[in-house]
Structures are given as C-alpha cells and as structure tokens.
C-alpha cells in the first residue's frame, strides 16, 4: 500500500494512506483534527502549497478542502485562507415536542429523527430577507389578518408549490399554519364538525399526530405498510372520513407510495367522499431520483396537501402551509378562527421575501447536498463497520431506518437505546413509531442524520458503529 | 386678537392666530399642510430662522416642529432638516378578524376600535432587536420547543409583568400565545375538558371571544355592566367554571372594576373553585391616573392573566402571554400541544431582546403620549363641535365610547354608521359589542383613536364631528 508523508511548515504533518489520494488526504486531515492534533483556528497551507508538497494535483487538494469545509472540519473565510473550524461543544438540546428530550439532553451526539441541521439555519440570509420585508411591508400588514395568513405569502407559496411539487392551487385555498401539527388539528376538528369520527393513519408514524387527531374526538385505525407504501385496500369498511399518508417518503419506514396505490387512494376518496391528507414533510430532499410530484397534483379536489419549513429551514420558524380542497376552505378557516391561533406577519413576510429572492431554493440545494453526503457517509461507514446492519428505505429526507438483523426484535430496542445513551448517543427505536406495539417485529433504529451539526456528524456515525458493532 | 404674519423665503407663508404662540404656530402649519399648500417633501426653515422671522423663542418653534413631527405632519431626518412628511394615502385596509373589514375597506378614515397605530410600529428598532436576537440565539432554539414557548422569553415576561403590572408568576406558569384569542381558546377547551360547561362573560365584549368559548362547547351567560364594572353578584347560581373580565378597563364601555367588585370576584372564585380570566389588553395605557395593578396580583391561584403585544406594538406580531394558576398549567400545555399551534422562535427571541433592551418600555411611553394627545384632541373637538355627544369611560386605552344623546337608541346606530361611511369614515356602534341585542339601549359609537396614522387623525376627528353634528 503506497504511502505519502508530508511535513509542512510550520506544523502540518499528514499521514496519507491508500491509493485514493483525495480520500486519503481527507481522511488524514479529519483524523488530525479529530485527534486534536490540529487545534481550532489552525491555519492550513494554501491548496497550491500543499499540492506541491504532496505531489498531488492542486484540484485534488482543493476538493479535499472543500469536502472538509462542507463537513464542518475546516472553515474558509475570504482573505484568511483555510483553517481548522471552531468546534462548538455539542449543542445543549431543547425540549422536543414529540421527541425524547431527556435522552437528547444527556447525549453528546444527537441522531434523533425529525429535525434538520439547526447549525446551518441561514441566519444572515434570513435577517437580510427580514430587513427587506420590513421595509416593504404596508402598515396594514401589521394589523389583524385573514386567518389564512398574508395574501402575499399565500400567492408566493401557490407559485412555489406549483413549480417545485406540482401542487395545483390558488392563494385562496392555502392556509398558513405554524406546523404540520396545526394543519392536522384544523383538519381533524373540521372533519369532526362535519360528522367524521374515523381518520385512518399509517401504522408507523408520529405519536403526536395520532394524539392530535384523537384529541379532536376522532379514532385513528392504522393501515399496514408494505414495500409499496400504505395498504390502501385496508380503508375498505373502516368508514373513514380521511386518511393521513406520507406518500412521498413514508415516515419513518422510508418507502414511497406506488402509482397503483396512489390511484387506489384517490379512488377511495372519490368513491367514499373521504379526504386524503398528504404530509409532504421532506418533498425537497431526494438524492438518487427526481422527486415524484405531490399526490395532490392528481386530485386537488380530494387531497389536502401540507408542506412545511420545519425540515427545509427550521422547526422554530413555525411555518407550514395547508392546501385544501375548495369545499373545505370555509370550514377550515372557521376552525382556525375559533382556535385563535395566528402566525406572526413578520415571519410570513420574511418567508415570502426568502422565496421570492431565490434564497429558499438555494438553501434547499445546499442542504440537499449536505444531507446526501451525510447519508452516503452513514451508509458507507455502516457497510464497513457494521455488516449485520442494513439501511432500508429510499435515499431521501433526513432519516434512515437501520434494520439491526441478528435476530433482534422490537423488545430488544430499549436495551440498544440504553447502550447507545451510555455511549453518549441519542437514538430512537422503530417501535416508538408503531401505532400498536409488536415486540416481535424485527428491531430497527430510526436515525436522523440531519440533526447533528456538521462538525459532530462523523463522530456521531463512528459512535453509532461502535454501539452496533 | 393679535395676529402675526410671516413670509419666509422661498415659499413659507403662515398665518398665526391667537395668543398661544406655540399652539398658533402648530395650527398654522397643520392647516398649511392639510390644505396641500405645503406639499409633501417641502423643506421648512430651520427653527432658528423661523423663530427670528416670527419674533418667537427658538424653543417655541422647535417644540412646535417636534409636536408636528410626532403627529406625522412633518418629518425630520438627520442632515436634511425638517420637511413636510410624505402623506401616505389612507391605508388600504386588511381583513380584520373581528371587525367590519368591508366598511374599513371603503373608508378614508378608520376609527374602528381594536388596533393601535400601525404606522408607528417601530420597524427599525424591531429589526435591530431581531439582528441581536438572531446573533445570540443558540442553535437548538431553532428546533422544536416547549409548547409554552421559549424559556428565555418567559423568564423575561415574568420579570416585566411583575414590574409593570404587579403580576405574580414564574416562567413555568407562562404560556406564550399568538393572541388573547388563542389563550381564551386554550382556557375554554381546558375547562371543558375538566367538565366546565359555563363560562360567564361581560354583557359587552368582542363577538369573536364569545364564539371561541362556544366553539369549545361551553355556554357564555352575560354579566351586566354598571359604573362599577361587571356585576359580579350575577355569577351566583350560574354554575360557571370561569368568568371572563376586563377589570382594568372594561371593553368597550371603559369602566374599571371597583375594589369591592374585585374582592367579590376573587371570593366567588375561591368559594366555587372557578377561574377568573383577566383580559389585560391595554394595561399600559392610562392617561389621567396610575394604572391599577392586575387583578391577578391579588390571587395568582384563581386568576388566569392574559396580556398581549397586539395593542402595545401590533396585532401582526401575534404575541400574547397567558399566566396560569399552577393547577391549570399541565392541562393548558396539553391543550396547546394538541392544537399543534406554535409561535415562531424568532418573534419570541426578538420580543425578549426588545424588552431586555428597554426598547419596549420606551415604545410604550411614546405611544402613551401619542394616544393621550389623540384622546385629548378627540374630546376637545367633540366638546366644541358636537355638544350633544358625551365621551364616557376612563381616559385610558385606545378607544372611547361616545354617547350620542338626543334620544337616539341602539336601533339608530346602523343609520349613523351608514351616514359615517358615506362621509368616508369607518366607525362601529356599541350595539355590535352587546352580548344580547337591545334596540332600546342608548345609542353610542365605539371610536378607536389608536387606529388612524398620525397624519390622518385630525382629519378623521373633523369628519366624525361633521357626521355627529
């Protein structure tokens, strides 16, 4: 195995292994930073100087630097060259609404699903958009608003959703919400008000969503999930007024609803007068295929589409958008009015400006690259270090399901989680997302690779491999 | 009556009347601007030059300029001196949640109650606070949060409310809401969940509030209002689980709940296990007396206090705060969680910084002065031009009730409103706030003097006097 040694003035020493020179250089730099040998703020040689010293093409070095900057190991600032990044201490975590926050609080590495990388929230771009939005706002936009939200944002969203997700709507049918959960609450209370008492859900999903539907006085029978997505046939005979689906990327199992099943869902809705609720939580993030358009685009009259900025930007923005069939708009508006809930106009105006200026598209493209690299790294390291574990589901979104194999069952998950927590790693078992408990189901972890800050991600993956063996 | 005439190069001609020189100068400048003789952007002489020309003290002129700047007739920018302000065309109005928006839409002058002066929203101060807040935010503050809102804001509010309103609370008992309406929704659904089916209200109030309580499945029997406030005795025998009061400044009648009635309300709560809900919508705005402390300060265990930034800053911020008795906090948090509603963290962080820096206090002091002047002008002009009309209620808040006299009754109000609308004036009759219709009640208008932008206020008052005769 060829080796290259380099000693660079004043203090850069790298051990390069293997034949893949760029990968070897990246690995050497990572290890030097991880071990602490290269401290935060250490200046690196220019890519030209390092390339010369190592006998590599300059592009190879520049690409390696770029990769490590993307991963958060290095930082580059105009005029001050490339340096070792300031390594923030692991974030002191917030109380999650639907997540095991106590586990998170004690853990150095957070791989819980549901949250994007909060460290990459584009603070200065957002502030810039807020500045423009505040300057351009009309006085009356600071007053009481249409319960649906500011017209200006709804018009922008109608355009955006048509372009990016194929959603067919006008501003009139969009209701700005503070998250998917609020949209679901409005849908459940509205349907209950119209006499529906059954709201079918997928047999794997988020507990809070089931809680919200039930709090509105509506039952939530589950549909099984197979490799084609939710088993739509099981809607027969349930008397459901609605069904909640994640057709683009089942959460958490990660399958996509097939074309046949999509058609079946729409046929069910048309035949029964029921409503399909499409939770498009991560429709922007597809890594190995172009995204399918929203289910709503096939049947805007029977599908309520919900998108959100919680994954594409940050949950804290509290911005989501419900696109409702015409026949439901008035009742939904009345539900929202009766709930007294409103969304701040400054967030709305800023979001509108953020989309208008193209900053939102650019941020999503950047994030897509970032998460794809993380997913690739996760898969590569697991393949290498934990051959008994298989990653299931589409290359999409911010999470992966790791089937643990070795005859492990759902009942073994708590033990694995405890072991992980002792190793400083917050993870979640698949069983926590099941509608009904099944201790005999194969064990799996739901890993959120979006969550850690960049600089902690590689360490989190190694810690995970350590635990999974 | 002495007169002073002034002609100033190049084009400032003023006619000064009366002995009160500053008032005369202000009046002359106002008329020159109102008539259009001095167009938008016209440069005025320096206060020194004008004082010399008119034989006035320089301070007299500077004060008059200051007053007219505060009223929005003039504007001053560093380095470019004093100019006639750009006169925005009357605002194209927004759809109000609980207000007759179609009337507003057609009207040049908006005197509908419920909204502060949106033109004086401190945009650049708010943006400055947002900049600081964004820079200081921890990454995890962009994630999912405690349903009560950010701890940092709740701690700041606990301090602020103790200092300004005497409220006794800790951060743990504060729930950040998007407005009073949401707080009321959470209270009504929580109480309903605990078996309460009756939520007494004042016999005059906001229709939306009654709708929200009823939408939660709870009845709203009304308590009469007399000069001592709500008649608490009428709670006897109602079997109410709660009562909604505006003790500081009854909305809309404008009386304050007397000390005896306050004690009676707390005795009722202690004796029956009921809850007093205190809507402190305008507690910061008292003009002729120091504000009474919040009712909550007497009995934090039986009073739920609700304050809001909707009147002190702008409804569009969608920020309010519910301070709950300990025994209700968990159930309220669960109600909020089940409603899926959240408040954006950037608004919360910015509000925290706005209070911390003192900008909120300063804004309220400025607003108090502004609204007091408006109220004084309204009363003075009505006294002079419409002697049959009397202004009732405390000198407080953002609205006044005009008793129309002349034997006019509630049934005459629609006619008066129509006449006002023809004259380009949006006003609201008292009858619209009554819990139960009473066409024989004396006719009155509820006039929001906070609503118009400064430059339109004097014109709005004159138009109102024209209509009332």
Question: Would you give an account of this structure?
Answer:
The structure is a homodimer of 469-residue chains. The first copy, chain A, has three domains: 5-84, Winged helix-like DNA-binding domain superfamily/Winged helix DNA-binding domain (Arc Repressor Mutant, subunit A); 100-115 and 362-468, Aspartate Aminotransferase, domain 1, CATH 3.90.1150.10; 137-357, Type I PLP-dependent aspartate aminotransferase-like (Major domain) (Aspartate Aminotransferase, domain 2). Helix content of chain A is 40%, strand content 15%. The longest helix of chain A is centred in the C-terminal third of the chain and has 27 residues, at 359-385. In chain A, helix 6 (151-165) packs across helix 11 and helix 7 packs across helix 10. By secondary structure, chain A is an alpha/beta fold. Chain A starts with a strand and ends with a helix. Chain A contains 14 helices and 19 strands. Chain A has a seven-stranded mixed sheet with strand order 6-14-13-12-11-7-8, with helices on both faces. In chain A, strands 15-16-19-18 form a four-stranded antiparallel sheet, with helices on one face. In chain A, helix 8 links the parallel strand 7 (199-202) and strand 8 (222-223).
């Amino acid at each position: 195995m060829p080796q290259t040694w380099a000693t660079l003035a004043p203090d850069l020493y790298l051990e390069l292994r293997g034949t893949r020179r760029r990968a070897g250089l990246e690995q050497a730099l990572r290890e030097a930073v991880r071990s602490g040998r290269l401290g935060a703020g250490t200046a690196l040689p220019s890519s030209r100087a390092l390339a010369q010293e190592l006998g590599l093409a300059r592009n190879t070095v520049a690409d390696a630097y770029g990769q490590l900057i993307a991963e958060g190991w290095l930082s580059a600032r105009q005029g001050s060259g490339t340096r070792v990044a300031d390594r923030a201490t692991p974030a002191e975590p917030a109380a999650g609404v639907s997540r095991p926050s106590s586990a998170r609080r004690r853990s150095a590495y957070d791989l819980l699903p549901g949250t994007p990388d909060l460290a990459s929230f584009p603070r200065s771009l957002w502030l810039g958009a807020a500045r423009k939005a505040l300057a351009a706002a009309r006085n009356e936009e600071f007053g009481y608003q249409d319960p649906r939200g500011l017209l200006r944002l709804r018009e922008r969203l109608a355009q955006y959703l048509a372009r990016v997700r194929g959603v067919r709507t006008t501003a009139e049918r969009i209701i700005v919400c503070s998250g998917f959960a609020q949209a679901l609450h409005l849908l459940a209370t509205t349907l209950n008000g119209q006499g529906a008492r059954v709201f079918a859900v997928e047999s794997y999903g988020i507990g809070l969503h089931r809680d919200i539907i039930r709090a509105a006085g509506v039952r939530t029978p589950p549909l099984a999930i197979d490799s084609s997505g939710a088993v739509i046939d099981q809607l027969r005979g349930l008397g459901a007024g609605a069904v909640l689906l994640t057709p683009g990327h089942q959460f958490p199992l990660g399958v996509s609803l097939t074309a046949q099943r999509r058609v079946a869902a729409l046929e069910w809705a048309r035949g029964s007068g029921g409503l399909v609720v499409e939770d498009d939580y991560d429709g922007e993030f597809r890594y190995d295929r172009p995204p399918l358009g929203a289910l709503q685009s096939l049947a805007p009259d029977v599908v309520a589409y919900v998108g959100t900025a919680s994954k594409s930007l940050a949950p804290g923005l509290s911005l989501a958008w419900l696109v409702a069939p015409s026949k439901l708009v008035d009742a939904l508006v009345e539900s929202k009015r009766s709930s007294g809930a409103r969304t701040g106009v400054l967030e709305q105006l800023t979001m509108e400006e953020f989309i208008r200026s193209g900053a939102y598209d650019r941020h999503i493209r950047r994030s897509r690259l970032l998460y794809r690299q993380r997913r690739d790294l996760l898969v590569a390291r697991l393949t290498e270090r934990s051959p008994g574990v298989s990653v299931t589901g589409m290359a999409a979104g911010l999470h992966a399901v790791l089937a643990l194999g070795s005859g492990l069952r759902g009942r073994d998950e708590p033990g694995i989680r405890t072991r992980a927590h002792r190793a400083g790693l917050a993870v979640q078992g698949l069983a926590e997302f099941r509608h009904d408990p099944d201790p005999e189901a194969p064990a799996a972890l739901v890993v959120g690779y979006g969550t850690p800050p960049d600089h902690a991600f590689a360490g989190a993956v190694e810690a995970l491999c350590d635990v999974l063996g």
